[in-house]
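Here is one chain, start to finish.
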Amino acid sequence: MPVTFTTGLDYENMSERRKGFENFVMVNGAPQYGEEGNLRRNERNLMWNIDPYLQTQWQLTDKLSLDAGGALQLGVVRLQRLLHYARQRR
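Its structure:
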């Protein structure tokens, strides 16, 4: 009964930039809605994780095999949010 072991690491990362704007501009002291206004939010989000895994395959017969495995509970996830405000909020 041949047995095969497979091990490895699963690595993922993500990086995104997000900006938010006011949905109006001031014209002669009155708001004009539906226009891109001042920058409200400027952020960068980063994420990464790494997970080791193990998979085993038993070849029981020529046509039948048994597979088992999974990720170990040693995974690491790191999230980071960097906020850059354009102006002070009151």
